[in-house]
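Query structure, 290 tokens:
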């Protein structure tokens, strides 16, 4: 409790003053309301006020402060209480992913929205406030998970990393069912990162203390081959702890592959899962001796 109060106090006194000679909590702005709600442990109220501040967008100098507010709210339960409204019955899950991919000589960025639905979906979209498309380089795909549920994925290939701010998710069913939600993204601060240590080994580094209320970062190690213009995953394993630094011998036949090592970190925004991923990749040769 002391830690939370101390951090909130620092946030309050570091925030810009909107009016001179007016005490902080005597003004009634969405930002002061966000502070009040957070101090009172009213996370849905805090999130609603935070959305309103981003909608107004009057002063970009406070963006880092808004980011700190979001991060502080995650210290309670990793974002589960930011929105108490459940998904509609026909929508089983919503996952938003931000992915940074580092390969030799090239960095690339992707975003995706994955939804599982019992209603056929005609479109899934993620836009930046106000109604700005992330990119025209996007595609909607689907896969049948069961007799009643289908997974839809809208992928966006981006020129740069998604910036902090306010976004809108929209899912539209062919029967005119519609679900929408605001999404607030903060600045990407990877608490766990991965880098190459040698030609065939990598190293997982912890850059900050982990949020005990969030799932442990997962390490996803995969091998791909390239056949007829497509990458096919031929081997993979996910680790939640005791991260390895190399691949055991004998997992795939001799040949040339692409090795991808990803650190995936997850939080929530109410019922929405928000995943940030850092991936490093390079060619990987498996010899007969191995």
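Result returned for the query:
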């Amino acid at each position: 409790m002391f830690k939370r109060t101390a951090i909130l106090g620092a946030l309050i006194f570091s925030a810009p003053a909107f009016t001179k000679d007016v005490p902080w909590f005597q003004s009634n702005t969405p930002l002061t309301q966000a502070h009040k709600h957070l101090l009172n442990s009213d996370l849905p109220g805090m999130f609603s006020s935070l959305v309103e501040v981003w909608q107004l967008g009057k002063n970009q100098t406070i963006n880092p402060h808004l980011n700190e507010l979001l991060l502080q709210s995650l210290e309670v339960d990793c974002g589960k209480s930011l929105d108490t409204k459940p998904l509609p019955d026909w929508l089983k899950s919503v996952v938003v992913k931000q992915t940074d991919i580092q390969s030799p000589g090239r960095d690339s960025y992707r975003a995706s929205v994955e939804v599982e639905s019992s209603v056929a979906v005609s479109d899934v979209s993620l836009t930046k406030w106000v109604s700005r498309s992330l990119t025209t380089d996007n595609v909607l795909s689907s896969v049948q998970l069961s007799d009643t549920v289908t997974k839809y994925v809208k992928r966006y290939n981006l020129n740069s990393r998604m910036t902090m701010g306010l976004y809108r998710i929209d899912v539209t069913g062919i029967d005119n069912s519609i679900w929408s939600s605001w999404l607030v993204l903060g600045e990407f601060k990877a608490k766990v990162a991965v880098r190459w240590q040698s030609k065939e080994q990598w190293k997982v580094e912890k850059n900050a203390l982990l949020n005990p209320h969030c799932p442990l970062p997962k390490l996803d190690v995969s091998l791909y081959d390239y056949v007829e213009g497509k990458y096919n995953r031929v081997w993979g394993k996910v680790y939640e702890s005791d991260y390895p630094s190399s691949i055991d011998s004998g997992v795939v036949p001799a040949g040339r592959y692409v090795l991808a090592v990803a650190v995936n970190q997850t939080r929530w925004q109410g019922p929405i899962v928000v995943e940030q991923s850092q991936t490093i990749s390079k060619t990987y040769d498996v010899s007969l001796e191995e």
